[in-house]
Design a protein that fits this description.
single chain, mainly alpha, Muramoyl-pentapeptide Carboxypeptidase, domain 1, 2 domains, 2 strands
């Protein structure tokens, strides 16, 4: 039970600690809780999924749709149909993107480096891209 001069700290797993307000332990716990919450809160926003499979000619599915949408928004001067099929048009646009970025191998494959470069495009985009987190490989 909490008294008026105690403070309740709730940690991420709903642990409850009672500490005297103003105590050094309370200040340290508050700092640690804030740091942990910040790290946990930011850990999933910086990149997509480094465990997502490499996408290449012949691949299909939601990951390919995500890549196609990102390529269409990359400002390369032309776009492709978003159909979830990694065919010749998608491969060609991936190569154009890789060429435009300058620091990527031009192989038409969306691996970790190309996926990471594509994912950088999402920072200023609408939140629907969070649905692509598990489907685009990144470093």
């Amino acid at each position: 039970m909490s008294r008026h001069h105690d403070q309740i700290w709730r940690c991420p797993k709903e642990w409850v600690y009672y500490m005297k307000i103003g105590s050094k332990a309370a200040r340290v716990a508050a700092g640690l809780a804030l740091s942990l919450t910040t790290v946990i809160g930011l850990s999933g926003t910086a990149q997509a999924d480094h465990m997502a499979p490499t996408l290449r000619y012949g691949s299909s599915g939601h990951g390919v749709e995500c890549v196609q949408v990102l390529l269409n928004r990359a400002g390369l001067g032309h776009s492709i149909k978003v159909d979830g099929q990694f065919g010749p048009a998608t491969k060609s646009l991936v190569e154009d993107f890789q060429r435009a970025r300058g620091r990527l191998d031009i192989d038409g494959v969306v691996g970790r480096e190309t996926g990471g470069a594509l994912w950088e495009l999402t920072y200023s985009q609408p939140r629907w891209y969070t649905d692509c987190y598990d489907y685009i490989p990144t470093p």
